[in-house]
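Morning F.,

Quick status update on the modeling queue. The single chain you submitted on Monday has been processed. Sequence for confirmation:
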Amino acid sequence: TQRTKDARLSDVQRMAHRFPTLNEIRRKDVQVWAASLIESEGLAGNTMRRILTACREYWKYLKALELVPDDSAPFDGLNLPKVKHSIRGGDKRKAFTPGQVVELLNKAVEKEDQQLADLIRLGMWTGARIESLCSLKVEDVREQSFMVNEDKTEAGTREVPIHSKLKSTMDRLVKDSKDGYILSGLTFNKYRDRSNAVGKRFGRLKSKLGHGPELVFHSIRKTVATIMEDAGVPENVTADILG
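C-alpha cells below.
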C-alpha cells in the first residue's frame, strides 16, 4: 500500500541521514544507532524493528546490485535495549471508565463539534473501531442493525445491533447524510482514510482532559468490552458484536 511505501522510504532515508556512505554501515555502528534511537528519541520496540526491517531489505537490494559484499549483514544479530515505557500495541492501551467516555462526549458537545460528538456516541454504543465507523455507509444501515464490511480481520465483517440509546442519533445521521456516509463530510487523506482528521480532533480533546497516550479512541472499544463482560454477556456474543 502507499502507506507502507512511504513508511519504508522514510525508514531508509533515516538510515541514509545517519550513514551517508555505504562503507560507514557496520554492525557495531548500526547497534549504536539503533540504541540511540530507542533511548534518545523514545522509539517503541516495534517501530525500531520496522526501521531495521526496511534497512535490511534495502541492503538485500544493494547486494543484488553488487554494491556491498554478499556476505555482509550489518542489520542482523543486533542486541536492542528493552523499551521501558512503550504504550504501542493493543495490549498497552487502557480502557476509559464509562464516566470518562461520557465526559468526552459532553466536552465535544460543549465545543459544538457535532461530528466528533456523533463519532463518540457511535463508539460508546457499538464498540466499533474508528476506521469502521468513519467508513460506515448509509446503505449499510438497517432498521435495527448495521453491517460492518471494512475491518482489520475476517471476523470484522459482521452485523451490529443498534442500541436503543443510539437509535435517534443513527436515524438523524442517515437522514442528514449528503455523501452516502453515516459520518457525513469527512474527507479522505492520501491513504483513502476518512478517520484521520476527526481522529486527531479526538486526540486533542482527550489530551485537554488530561488523558495520556495510553488512552486513545480504541480505548472506548475496550470500555465496551469490559462493560459487556461485567454484565455477564457470553463471550461469543461479545465477539459477534465487536468483531
